[in-house]
Design brief:
With about 600 residues, the chain is mainly alpha-helical. It has 24 helices and 8 strands. Strands 1-3-4-6-7-8 form a 6-stranded mixed beta sheet. Strands 2-5 form a two-stranded antiparallel sheet. Strand 3 and strand 4 form a beta hairpin. Helix 3 runs antiparallel to helix 11, helix 4 crosses helix 18 and helix 16 runs antiparallel to helix 17. The protein is elongated and about 115 Å long. It starts with 20 loop residues before the first helix and ends with a helix.
């Protein structure tokens, strides 16, 4: 008979090789929701990896521009034919890259990260990450109107997924490591560790807890430190500490927020309408973007690239009112078309660009109407950045903290809070848009934000709650073997059926009750002197004795409780065996059992 008792200790999983005790223990610890200590260690590791990858991406996307730009990001200095030709050449190169890959390997950006996190347990294909690295750098070098933060988020999340996959960590910890990678990437891109933390929690992980925050914070610190070592400690933008002159300007800021919220909703709706064309030929759609961007750039070269030099000028109030209006219209067209048709860049940088220009317009008009004693257009540009980022990304807190860290100006907090609230309300409730990432997921027929119950179940691995008090037995055993089996005090018996792919589940109490009845019947027969002396003892058939038996399905130990619930629903099984891998003897691969009550009990806690 092949039988094994699952151990109740939490230090090791039954059936796992003792020679890997340290790593297996780490994996088991990470399957629990409150695994703070190991998550902190992993968060530090992911932060360093994601920060290094983000720094490398920034170098690769900036270094080639030194060959044709005297001043970094100053595409305005190029002659008109290069301003037109550069995006077109970049589009042709991007289209050629994409045509070499299967359609499943062409997905990149923040939307791809959210899709893989919510629908694929955080598994990030490495081929998509390589495409994001080189295609994102190509898009930025060629002057497409996109940001570098979207690619950085993808690369940071892929770093977390890659480490988790190499260490074979449970799936519930993968989502935390993805969040660590995202935070580190944002922190390294802008030198904004706090905004990176909140963006990861608010947009990606959708979670606010101590166990969730601390590893992400440590990763953001590591990512920001890595970037500071490479690029120095100076802030992303050098602007004076200007402030609001009078509370009488609040109505003007309110009107500005209404306009920003409306334009953010317009951007999102255009993006949602055009995103479905991402399934068409990449060469065709990229060429359309390149021709459009290049044509606009002949007259408005400020739209090319990330545009951070223009953004800083807007915050310093150095761009005229009419020029700002033209730049806003041109940037809206170029960016909405480029990102919606799949150019591998981000929208975070363009959202800051548009917000700064719109705020600068509001500030210029205010100065013109109310006189020079109002706040400078630069101040309006700063608060406009916060409002546009919040309304476009549906990330109000991340936007507020990003502006604070980008400008090092606490004077922007009070008016920014008001503008963020108004712009977000206009975009979310008046125009019924939920943020550009969620809307794009829907446009691509992918599920968006999971329910709070799904979120809760995905935070814990099956290895931390599974039942380990079980034994494995063949279908027929002797009465002596049945007695020894019961003496081990298991909760469950797995009936090993060689002809079936999975065993059947029997309560150990049912076998104990059956054996008691057999003994009582033997005692009564003996008293009545009716028991035959030479009768051969019949084996106990575990499939025929009275009791409930459940069919079982198999699930890998790395799965979450959400995956366990989905497996139970899809298979129709009454329970799940948790295994270290398919194939081989049950003794060697089964580590525990998950029943529906385990999921219900966790859900009710």
């Amino acid at each position: 008979m092949s039988q094994r008792t699952g151990k109740s200790t939490k230090k090791t999983l039954p059936g796992w090789p003792q020679r890997e005790h340290g790593l297996e223990r780490l994996r088991l610890m990470l399957s629990a929701q409150d695994a703070l200590a190991p998550l902190l260690a992993m968060g530090l590791l992911i932060g360093i990896c994601a920060g290094a990858v983000t720094v490398l991406f920034r170098l690769v996307s900036e270094w080639p521009t030194h060959l044709f730009l005297a001043i970094p990001e100053r595409y305005e200095a190029l002659p008109p034919h290069w301003r037109f030709g550069l995006p077109v050449l970049g589009s042709l190169l991007l289209g050629s890259m994409y045509l070499l890959l299967k359609p499943s390997r062409r997905h990149v950006g923040v939307v791809h990260v959210l899709d893989r996190l919510h629908n694929h347990q955080g598994f990030m294909p490495i081929q998509n990450a390589f495409l994001q690295f080189f295609a994102g750098a190509t898009a930025l070098v060629s002057g497409h109107s996109v940001g570098r933060e979207g690619p950085a988020v993808h690369l940071g999340a892929a770093s977390g997924s890659w480490v988790a996959r190499k260490l074979r960590l449970p799936n519930n910890s993968v989502r935390s490591l993805l969040g660590c990678g995202v935070a580190a990437a944002i922190a390294a891109s802008f030198n904004t560790p706090l905004a990176g933390v909140v963006f990861a929690m608010e947009v990606v992980m959708l979670e606010y807890s101590v166990v969730g925050f601390l590893p992400v914070m440590l990763a953001a610190v590591a990512g920001s430190t890595t970037a500071q070592i490479a690029f120095g400690r100076q802030p992303a933008f050098n602007v004076p500490a200007i402030q609001l002159t009078s509370l009488a300007e609040l109505p003007v800021l309110l009107l500005c927020a209404l306009v920003i919220g409306t334009l953010a909703a317009l951007f999102i709706r255009v993006h949602r309408r055009l995103a479905k064309y991402q399934r068409s030929s990449p060469l065709t759609r990229f060429l359309i973007v390149g021709l459009t961007t290049g044509t606009i750039a002949i007259w408005v070269p400020e739209i090319l690239g990330t545009g951070y030099d223009t953004l800083e000028k807007a915050m310093l109030g150095e761009i005229g009112l009419s020029a700002l209006m033209i730049i806003v219209v041109a940037k809206l067209v170029a960016t909405s078309l480029g990102t919606s048709l799949g150019i591998p860049g981000g929208v975070i940088g363009p959202s800051l660009f548009l917000g700064a220009c719109l705020g600068g317009i509001a500030g210029g008009l205010t100065n013109f109407w109310l006189g020079e004693y109002t706040a400078s257009p630069g101040f309006y540009a700063m608060v406009g950045m916060a409002a546009m980022m919040a309304a476009l990304l549906n990330a109000p807190l991340a936007a507020l903290l990003a502006i604070l860290e980008l400008t090092y100006n606490a004077n922007v907090l009070f008016p920014s809070m008001m503008m963020i609230v108004v712009a977000s309300l206009v975009s979310r409730y008046f125009f019924a848009t939920e943020g550009i990432f969620q809307e794009t997921l829907r446009a691509l027929d992918k599920s968006g934000t999971p329910s709070w119950r799904q979120q809760m179940l995905s935070r814990v691995g099956v290895a931390s709650v599974m039942e380990r008090r079980f034994v494995i037995a063949p279908q027929k055993i002797s009465e002596e073997e049945a007695t020894r089996l019961i003496e081990r005090h298991p909760q469950w018996i797995l009936i090993d059926l060689p002809q079936e792919p999975t065993p059947q589940l029997l309560r150990a109490a049912d076998l104990a009750t059956f054996m008691e009845r057999v003994k009582e019947a033997r005692a009564e027969a003996k008293e009545a002197d009716k028991e035959p002396k030479t009768e051969k003892e019949e084996p106990v058939d575990l499939l025929k004795l009275p009791g409930d038996r459940d069919q079982m399905a198999e699930l890998n130990w790395r799965a979450t409780l959400l995956e366990a619930q989905q497996a139970l629903e899809s298979s129709g099984a009454g329970a799940l065996i948790i295994s270290r891998g398919h194939g081989g003897a049950l003794d060697n691969r089964i580590t525990g059992i998950i029943l529906p009550q385990h999921i219900d009990n966790y859900y009710r806690k």
